[in-house]
């Protein structure tokens, strides 16, 4: 059992992009999908199931560049295409924007889940798309993929914000102390 699990972990593919500064573990059973990259110049990587689990077709995972950084402000429903809804996903210490939507296609209903990841120097969007009967599996795979997704964010974690605030407070206390010493020394010299 342990040997089987170790073999499965070793067989998982890792992907990275030095320009966008990320790396991730590609889900087991997914293979490179060049046609997915050809669908848009912004799609930098794409994988599909080697063997479709659903009779309605295979699931696809793509990473798309967003040409900028993401701010902390939340998306609103007005920002979304009709039929889509916002959801919150977890990446590292952050709650990030997720978008859930459904569409119709010849093979049957399609479910799409996208996660917008605030990377530095440029944000990316991870998108899973597949048959609507695979919605629960897509949710699960997105969580696993986000857990493996590594990269430097333009957002500060709570610890990083606290550290910066602490440094700022320390600097202001030092400046105030130095100003007090200078004031005291001048007052003392003036009295002498």
Helix/strand layout:
Blueprint: H1 2-11, E1 14-17, E2 22-25, E3 30-32, H2 34-38, E4 43-49, E5 60-65, E6 84-91, E7 94-105, E8 108-117, E9 124-131, H3 135-148, E10 150-151, H4 158-191
Antiparallel strand pairs: 1-2, 2-10, 3-4, 4-5, 5-9, 6-7, 7-8, 8-9
According to DSSP, the number of beta strands is: 10
Which blocks of ≥5 consecutive residues have pLDDT under 50? 2-10, 160-169
Quote the average pLDDT: 83
The best one-word shape is elongated
User: Given the helix and strand composition, which structural class is it?
Assistant: alpha+beta
Helix content percent band: 25-40%
Q: How much of the polypeptide forms β-strand, as a percent range?
A: 25-35%
Measure the end-to-end span: 86 Å
Strand order of the largest sheet: 3-4-5-9-8-7-6
Q: State the CATH architecture of the largest domain.
A: 3-Layer(aba) Sandwich
Task: Kindly report the name of the CATH homologous superfamily of the largest domain.
Answer: Mog1/PsbP, alpha/beta/alpha sandwich
**CATH first level of the largest domain:** Alpha Beta
CATH topology of the largest domain: Protein Transport Mog1p, Chain A
Question: How many structural domains can be distinguished in the coordinates?
Answer: 2
Q: If helices are DSSP runs of H or I spanning 4 or more residues, what is the number of helices?
A: 4
Please describe the biggest sheet, giving its number of strands, its sense, and whether it closes into a barrel: 7 strands, antiparallel
List SSEs in N-to-C order: HEEEHEEEEEEHEH
**What is the radius of gyration computed over CA atoms, rounded to a whole number of angstroms?**
24 Å
């Amino acid at each position: 059992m342990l040997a089987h699990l170790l073999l499965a972990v070793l067989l998982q593919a890792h992907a990275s992009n030095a320009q966008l500064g990320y790396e991730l573990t590609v889900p087991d059973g997914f293979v490179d999908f060049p046609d997915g990259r050809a669908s848009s110049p912004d799609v930098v990587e794409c994988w599909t199931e080697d063997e479709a689990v659903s009779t309605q077709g295979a699931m696809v995972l793509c990473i798309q560049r967003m040409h900028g950084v993401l701010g902390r402000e939340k998306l609103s429903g007005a920002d979304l295409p009709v039929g889509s809804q916002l959801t919150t996903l977890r990446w590292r210490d952050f709650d990030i924007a997720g978008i859930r939507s459904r569409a119709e296609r010849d093979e049957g209903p399609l479910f799409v889940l996208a996660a917008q990841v605030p990377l530095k120097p440029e944000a990316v969007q991870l998108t899973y798309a597949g048959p609507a009967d695979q919605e629960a599996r897509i949710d699960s795979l997105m969580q696993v993929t986000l857990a493996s997704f590594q990269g430097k964010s333009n957002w500060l974690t709570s610890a990083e914000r606290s550290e910066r605030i602490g440094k700022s407070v320390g600097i202001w206390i030092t400046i105030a102390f130095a100003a007090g010493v200078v004031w005291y020394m001048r007052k003392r010299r003036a009295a002498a």
